[in-house]
Amino acid sequence: MSESERWRVAPGSTVDLTTIDPGSTDGAPGEGDKDATKATFKDLRHELRDLQARLWAEREQALLVVLQAMDAGGKDGTVKHVFRGANPMGIRVTSFKKPSEDELDHDFLWRVHKVTPAKGEIGVFNRSHYEDVLVVRVHELVPEQTWRPRYETIRAFEDGLTRAGTRVVKLYLHISKDEQKERFDARRDTPEKRWKWNDQDLVERKRWDDYRSAYEEAIAETSTDAAPWYVVPADHKWYRNWAVSRILIETLHDMDPQFPTETR
Ligand code: AMP
Ligand code: MG
Predict the structure, then answer these.
(1) Please, which residues have CB within 8 angstroms of residue 240's CB and are 6 or more apart in sequence?
(2) For labelling alongside 62, which of 37, 113, 163, 164 has CA 20 to 30 A away?
(3) Nearest atom of ligand 1 to the alpha carbon of 139
(4) Alpha-carbon gap, residue 78 to 242, rounded angstroms
């Protein structure tokens, strides 16, 4: 069993997030020891950097990493820590916000497809097209007849990306409601974190269960062999960083990018 199997959602399975412990440290080095895991994470970061250098030099394949989570779930922190040391030229991070008028005048994938990674690049989506079956569903921004068929549209879209040489890896950073509360409190009470605070977050928090079931269905409907979902326990940031880098490294090893032997 590859290590990342542990977090992968098998295609066709149902997802019940209440049965997955957000505080899990399963499989981490030193039997879930924080310091041992942090030390290993440093090595993994170097390995990721080396694999990225190959991917960039090869320019034949791309990797798309989709990050989704509840508010304060650790999407920004994952980008910051996991890709530290990577060559910024080959990394393309996109944060998806509320769609603009212009974006809303197009189909929901329009703004997404434009920013998928080119050959050689690692594209990181901080939020993604999945918001169009999550927040959009929870707040009934469009009727069910509109959002439900999007699962199929998304599967086809990601399948198309895969056929064109882009590997798609989707990560749900799984935090507990208690951990979210602690992170919200920290945002409010720490001057360096206050800029992240948004009063709307409390409104969303009241819809926790609605978001959870929307996530469960979206993940179950769209975890495919070509574009799998991974549910990463994320209450412990050190575990999350380690697990995410393990998943990305295994994926990149499987892609097996090579330095070109010919000169340009
Ligand atoms: P943040 O990630 O904290 O910067 O917040 C971005 C906000 O944009 C979140 O509240 C998302 O729910 C919202 N958002 C992102 N994509 C969409 C979308 N397709 N439709 C509606 N809201 C969205
Ligand atoms: Mg926010």
Answers:
(1) 74, 77, 78, 173, 232, 233, 234
(2) 37
(3) 21
(4) 10
Smallest CA-to-CA distance from 133 within 124, 125, 141 is with 141
- Tokens 């921004």 appear where? 141
- Phi, psi for 64 (deg, rounded to 5): -110, 125
Cα distance between residue 122 and residue 88, in whole Å? 10
Residues 86-140 pLDDT 10s: 999 999 999 999 999 999 999 999 999 999 999 999 999 999 999 999 999 999 9
Sheet with strand 122-126: strands edge to edge: 91-95, 122-126, 62-69, 166-174, 229-233
Compute, in angstroms, the gap from residue 165 CA to the centroid of ligand 1.
Answer: 28
Pocket test for ligand 1, best of 66, 98, 110, 203 (most atoms within 8 A of CB): 98
pTM above 0.90, yes or no: yes
Ligand 1 interacting residues, C-beta cut-off 6 A: 96-99, 127, 131-132, 135-136
The pLDDT tens digits for 220-250 are: 999 999 999 999 999 999 999 999 999 999 9
